[in-house]
Design brief:
Number of helices: 5
Strand content: 35-45%
CATH class of the largest domain: Mainly Beta
CATH architecture of the largest domain: Beta Barrel
Number of domains: 3
Radius of gyration: 23 Å
Length: about 400
């Protein structure tokens, strides 16, 4: 069997020196061209551009294969530029589209020392992108997918939405509150009399391998625990786990056992539904469900930076059940919105129509920011301060930033 690393290097050279067909016009970013913004639409489809795509299957020696959960092979397409990783090595390039036709040209690779299985995925990614001639997006079973095909219509690569959360995407401390847990197939609600939470403080991150490591600190609702975590794509492991051993009330005993069982597992699979995090032990079926303290639904936010306390009414944003509302610079405003926790679209934006308002320019700026918003990012600020909510456009530019109300100066 030939050495996969040497084969990868040879394949890469071919990919960088050759194209897969005639050059196509560079794609226009629809989020910036006056059409619908890049957000999840009612039909469930996600846009080709702007979406963080995660590899779910690839073709290797005419056999369809799936990368392991620890291999985060990803692509992101934005305004004609390609950023990708085969799960170990990052590479860049450009692309152009014409209808459903697409052409990739790879221009840059950062060579890393990769394991054999990851190298196989990288080979398939580079070769698949080089041979791609057509793309298709679909929504199957509520999951939006991206398919890449060659000139003969054979499937080369298949992607779906990458797991996105503040836990995996920030260096700030992120906090989660336990809402429920599953033990032996039985589902239980978290003890409402005491808070069981967990926070992750990243110290190191490898973007190409989607690896994050740092410190984890939490409470079972009765005892505290701490350790060192390492997250590789969707697989979490915790080492040096230690916990206090105070006696617990009967209402928290089962909850504590479930929490410590999961965090002490040999490996933990991680999933990020909107506003939530689900941790499942690979040693059994025990699972923990947390909600993000920086939730989107049912929350009220204050625009940052805040004016001096009492100097003027702050600008607010409340998101609840598809209706956005708040106090703008010139008065009350409202809008409809749809979100999946990552993408967000505001529509029917209505503000105060007062030509005499001295802050009319700021009012128009706020409403324009809502109309142009595509992404909603949430994270906790450094130093344990309260969460931030940031609205971004299709290119990732920050349009507005809000903070939670308890971060205001008294």
């Amino acid at each position: 069997m030939p050495d996969l690393r040497s084969l990868f290097a040879a394949t890469l050279v071919v990919a960088l020196m050759s194209g897969s067909g005639p050059a196509l016009a560079q794609s226009v970013d629809p989020g910036l061209s006056g059409t619908l913004p890049l957000a999840r639409q009612p039909d469930g489809l996600l846009p080709l551009e702007g979406t963080p795509w995660r590899l779910r299957s690839y073709r290797w020696k005419d056999v369809e294969r799936r990368p392991g959960p620890e291999v985060a092979a990803r692509v992101r397409l934005q305004a004609g530029k390609l950023e990708a990783s085969g799960g170990c090595t990052a590479f860049k390039g450009s692309y152009g589209t014409s209808g459903s036709a697409i052409d990739f040209k790879l221009t840059r690779l950062e060579q890393n020392d990769c394991g054999e299985q990851t190298t196989m995925v990288q080979l398939a990614m580079v070769d698949g992108l080089r041979r791609t001639a057509r793309f298709e997006t679909s929504a199957t079973g509520g999951e939006s997918q991206l398919w890449l095909f060659d000139h003969d219509g054979a499937e080369l690569l298949r992607f779906s939405l990458d797991d996105v959360s503040s836990f995996a995407g920030t260096r700030a401390r992120t906090e989660w509150l336990l809402t429920g847990f599953t033990v032996d197939g039985g589902q239980h609600e978290a003890d409402a009399t005491t808070a069981a939470n967990v926070s992750f403080s990243p110290r190191r991150r490898n973007e190409a391998k989607a690896r994050t490591s740092g410190d984890v600190l939490g409470s079972t609702g009765c005892n505290g625990f701490r350790g060192e975590f390492s997250l590789a794509a969707n697989v979490l492991s915790v080492g040096q786990l230690s916990a206090t051993d105070a006696p617990c009330a009967q209402s928290t005993q089962l909850q504590q056992e479930a929490i410590l069982e999961v965090f002490d597992a040999s490996a933990i699979t991680v999933a990020f539904p909107p506003d939530r995090m689900v941790l499942t032990s690979t040693d059994g079926d025990t699972a923990l469900e947390y909600r993000a303290l920086a939730s989107v639904e049912g929350t009220t936010w204050f625009r940052s930076p805040l004016p001096d306390f009492g100097a003027s009414d702050p600008v607010t944003l409340r998101l609840a059940a598809g209706v956005a509302s708040g106090q703008g610079p010139c008065g009350a405003y409202s809008a409809d919105y749809v979100t999946d926790g990552l993408f967000i679209t505001f529509s029917d934006v209505r503000g105060a129509d007062d030509g005499a308002c001295v802050a009319a320019k700021e009012e128009r700026k706020l409403l324009a920011a809502l109309r142009a918003s595509v992404r909603v990012d949430r994270d906790a600020a450094e130093g344990g301060r309260s969460p931030r909510l940031t609205l971004r456009d299709a290119r990732g530019k920050r349009l507005a930033r809000f903070i939670s109300p308890y971060d205001r100066a008294p």
